[in-house]
């Protein structure tokens, strides 16, 4: 009886097996059904065979039945599957990245992203194999309009003579007595359009008074939207104002570009006459009053003179309007 679908076919006279039989010596046709429907394995002594009962009707058929018909493939199916996988793995269809912006639909889906350096932008790209990544560093500088504001062009140093710059948009200096404005801090804005180093701060005495004294310094602004003097950055020295003329102090202070600062003076109890600014020379950095009748130009607050400036500008200052005295304060730059 032939059983061509058995995994192992054995035959011969089982009563007279050789010590180490070969598969070729065993023919299933000569076996009874009770033996042929079994699995065989060598015994422990390796000098004969033992049977392992198999309860199924046919091992090959049973194994085939374990697979769903939808997953059964002929040899041609396997060949086609391999071809399909090879086609899927081409460079045009594999490992692509979709790129978009602002949560919108993807602009494109490609295998490569090409970063380009725009104006004032520098890219540094490094392959980090240890962390399985490519590091991209983007550095930007400058930007904005290339047209420089007129305030950008300020003479630096003294090689061509001294150059001083006012806390005002344009020139225009008058003479006003501070006799009725003693023991006060006065703060007026100074606009820096480029980074500079201040090496002098000064004011001018028009009419000296014995024992009168004034001190000047630079304060930071609270913020770009809250214009009030904040912290003292640098202070000049106390100046004797009993004589007329320019009174300057040596300082060293770097001021940043596109930043507003406050130039501040403190007068003592003996009023002298200082050079002051006309209203038309200043910008109403604090806007106009609620009645739209007065420009709001700066701040002033009472403070008893002691030869120093406070580390923080006092709270509770009053707005300086166009009818208040506005001291002219000059800066000189070394760099």
CATH architecture of the domain at 156-333: Sandwich
Provide the β-strand percentage band.
35-45%
**What is the overall pLDDT average?**
78
CATH topology of the domain at 156-333: Jelly Rolls
SSE arrangement, N to C: HEEHHEEEEEEEEEEEEEEEEE
CATH class of the domain at 156-333 equals: Mainly Beta
**Count of extended strands:** 19
Explain what this protein looks like in three dimensions.
The protein is mostly beta strands and 335 residues long. Among the domains are: 14-64, no CATH class; 156-333, Jelly Rolls (Sandwich). The chain has helices spanning 33-36, 59-66, 75-88; strands at residues 38-42, 49-53, 97-99, 108-110, 121-128, 133-140, 165-166, 173-177, 184-192, 196-207, 213-221, 229-235, 239-240, 245-255, 259-267, 273-277, 296-302, 318-321, 330-333. The longest helix has 14 residues, at 75-88. Strand 3 (97-99) and strand 4 (108-110) form a beta hairpin. Mean pLDDT is 78; it is low at 1-14 and 20-32. The radius of gyration is 48 Å and the shape is elongated. It is built from 3 helices and 19 strands. The termini are far apart. Strands 9, 11, 12, 13, 15, 17 and 18 form a 7-stranded antiparallel β-sheet that branches. Strands 7, 8, 10, 14, 16 and 19 form a 6-stranded antiparallel β-sheet that branches.
Question: Keyphrases for this structure?
Answer:
single chain; 335 residues; mainly beta; Jelly Rolls; seven-stranded antiparallel beta sheet; six-stranded antiparallel beta sheet; 35% strand; elongated; disordered N terminus
């Amino acid at each position: 009886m032939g059983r061509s679908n058995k995994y192992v076919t054995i035959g011969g006279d089982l009563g007279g097996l050789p010590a180490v039989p070969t598969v070729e010596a065993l023919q299933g046709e000569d076996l009874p059904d009770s033996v042929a429907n079994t699995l065989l394995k060598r015994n422990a002594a390796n000098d004969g065979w033992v049977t392992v009962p198999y309860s199924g009707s046919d091992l090959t058929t049973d194994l085939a039945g374990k697979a769903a018909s939808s997953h059964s493939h002929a040899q041609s199916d396997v060949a086609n599957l391999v071809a399909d996988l090879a086609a899927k793995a081409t460079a045009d269809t594999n490992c692509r990245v979709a790129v978009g912006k602002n949560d919108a639909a993807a602009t494109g889906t490609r295998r490569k992203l090409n970063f380009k350096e725009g104006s004032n932008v520098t890219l540094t790209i490094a392959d980090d194999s240890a962390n399985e990544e490519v590091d991209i560093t983007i550095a930007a500088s400058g930007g904005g309009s290339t047209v420089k504001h007129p305030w950008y062009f300020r003479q630096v140093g003294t090689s061509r003579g001294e150059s001083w710059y006012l806390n005002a948009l344009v020139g225009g200096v008058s003479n006003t007595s501070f006799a009725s404005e003693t023991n006060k801090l006065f703060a007026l804005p100074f606009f820096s359009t480029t980074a500079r180093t201040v090496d002098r701060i000064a004011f001018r005495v028009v009419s000296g008074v014995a024992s009168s004294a004034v001190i000047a310094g630079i304060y930071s602004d609270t913020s770009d939207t809250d214009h009030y003097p904040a912290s003292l950055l640098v202070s000049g020295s106390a100046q004797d104002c009993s004589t007329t003329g320019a009174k300057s102090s040596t300082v060293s202070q770097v001021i940043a570009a596109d930043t507003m600062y406050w130039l501040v003076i403190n007068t003592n109890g003996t009023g002298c006459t200082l050079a002051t600014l006309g209203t038309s020379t200043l910008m109403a950095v604090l806007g106009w009053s609620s009645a739209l009748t007065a420009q709001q130009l700066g701040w002033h607050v009472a403070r008893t003179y002691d030869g120093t400036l406070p580390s923080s500008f006092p709270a509770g200052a009053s707005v300086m309007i166009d009818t208040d005295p506005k001291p002219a304060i000059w800066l000189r730059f070394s760099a």
